[in-house]
TrEMBL record:
Range of residues in the leader sequence: none
Swiss-Prot/TrEMBL keywords: Ion transport, Magnesium, Membrane, Translocase, Transmembrane, Transmembrane helix, Transport
InterPro entries: PPase-energised_H-pump (IPR004131)
This protein's name: H(+)-exporting diphosphatase
PANTHER family membership: K(+)-INSENSITIVE PYROPHOSPHATE-ENERGIZED PROTON PUMP
Cellular compartments annotated: Endomembrane system
A Pfam entry, by short name: H_PPase
Ranges annotated as spanning the membrane: 13-37, 69-93, 131-159, 166-185, 264-289, 301-320, 326-347, 368-393, 399-422
A Gene Ontology term for the protein's cellular component: endomembrane system
GO molecular function terms attached to this record: diphosphate hydrolysis-driven proton transmembrane transporter activity; inorganic diphosphate phosphatase activity
Organism: marine sediment metagenome
Membrane topology: Multi-pass membrane protein
Length: 428
């Protein structure tokens, strides 16, 4: 049925605001990247190792992108011939948007790693931690901003065009392209990462009795390259796809509702509020990290970003849709995201780890069994948390509520991705 755009003029300014917030995020990312060059890259030996990591990362990504581009072109031709040209074009744009944050993040990570090392050497843990966070924030902001610009621009262009009913096909093509690229980026980078990691340990420790991460072992350079291509570029594409897909699914459900327009606008507004909340948190990162262990610092950033987002959502939801139930749905999604993070942290650093250590005392077999059992049990709490969130969201707002809770859970994507990219930077 035709898409009803009654009252569109009331939302036109809001739709224009959404990609504008994304552009502000890109500006933040660019300024953050160039500010990294204000810090010392260390001595000649440090710069040499960092240069090899940077070069290896670029070589891998270029080769990966070339192969992926051939598959993308083939898929584009098939989509254009079997579906429609607008969907095929959106497929290409979605793939490009998934690729761009990964490349930006790789550049930032390989620039920040050596400077983080020098900061730790000269000024200690606090300075190194905040500098690594600053470099990782470039990646986090890029993921959220590019998604916001891409989806916001498509929605604005199509809803103001001659055939607004084609929005679902276009944004579905966009997220399909993002998913297509993320598959190769995440899986390809992940396989390389783990292969290099195991290879470095086998050659260095077992054959030559070298310490772990000794730069004299060439496989260690490959291991550090793998951290960047898998946990920065690959994970960036993967989280971009998850973030985009949750919003697109909610937008498509909104198109079938009685009043589609406000329900189309709401997920985009929540995306923009989430990015603003993350930018404010990143601006406060130095204060949040002062006199705090890195783990505490990162946990604080998640909680503060979600608090900012909750305040923004509380103000925006009644203004956009006038539905109080939707705020409950959004808070369920926020709580779900925080709880999953805390549950995962407990299983990766709490009593379950000490249990695996105890099991390891009697050999490799009991180590494997202990780790496997903890891994299985560790999946239970997140599953129950997600199930409870789905029940709450479905009861409060139906299928649309489930989609909206997923959008809320991933709304602070810039901080989520920042914390993920923080690991490879400090590891390098």
């Amino acid at each position: 049925q035709p898409l009803s755009l009654e009252g569109f003029d009331d939302y036109r300014l809001v739709l224009q605001f959404v990609p504008l917030v994304g552009l502000v995020g890109v500006l933040f990312a660019v300024l953050g990247f160039f500010s990294l060059f204000n810090y010392s890259p260390g001595n000649a030996q440090m710069r040499s190792v960092a240069s090899r990591i940077h070069s290896g990362t670029e070589v891998f990504l270029r080769q990966q992108y070339k192969i992926t581009a051939l598959l993308l072109i083939t898929s584009f031709v098939l989509l254009a011939s079997l579906a429609c040209l607008s969907t095929a074009m959106a497929f290409l744009v979605g793939s490009a948007c998934a690729m761009l944050p990964g490349w930006i993040g790789m550049k930032a990570a390989t620039t920040a790693n050596v400077r983080t090392c020098q900061a730790a050497k000269q000024e200690g843990l606090y300075k190194a931690s905040t500098l690594a966070f600053q470099g990782a924030a470039v990646m986090g902001i890029a993921v959220a901003s590019v998604s916001l610009i891409g989806l916001g621009s498509y929605c604005l262009a199509i809803l103001t065009g001659s055939s607004p009913g084609g929005l679902s096909y276009t944004i579905a093509g966009f997220t399909l392209g993002a998913s297509f690229f993320a598959l190769f980026g995440r899986v390809g980078g992940g396989i390389f990462t783990k292969s290099a990691d195991i290879g470095a340990d086998m050659t260095g420790k077992l054959e030559f009795n070298l310490p772990e991460d000794d730069p004299r072992n060439p496989a260690v350079i490959a291991d550090n390259v793998g951290d960047n291509v898998g946990d920065v570029a690959g994970m960036g594409s993967d989280l971009f796809e998850s973030y985009t897909s949750s919003v697109v699914a909610t937008l498509i459900m909104a198109m079938g509702m009685t009043e589609p327009l406000p329900h189309l606008v709401l997920p985009l507004v929540l995306m923009a509020i989430g990015l603003i909340a993350c930018l404010l948190t990143i601006c406060l990162s130095r204060a949040l990290g002062r006199r705090a262990a890195p783990q505490t610092f990162l946990r604080r950033t998640i909680l503060v970003a979600n608090a900012f987002f909750a305040i923004g959502a509380f103000v925006a939801i009644p203004w956009v849709v006038g539905e109080s139930n939707y705020f409950l749905v959004v808070m369920a999604g926020v709580a779900c995201g925080i709880l999953i993070g805390l549950e995962t942290e407990w299983f990766c650093s709490g009593p379950p780890i000490r249990y695996i250590v105890k099991m390891s005392e009697t050999g490799a077999a009991t180590n494997i069994m202990g780790g496997l059992s903890v891994g299985f049990f560790g999946a239970l709490l997140p599953i129950l948390t997600i199930s409870a969130t789905i029940l709450v969201a479905s009861y409060a707002a139906g299928l649309y509520g489930i989609g909206l809770s997923a959008v809320a859970m991933l709304s602070t994507m810039a901080i989520i991705m920042t914390i993920d990219a923080y690991g490879p930077i400090v590891d390098n």
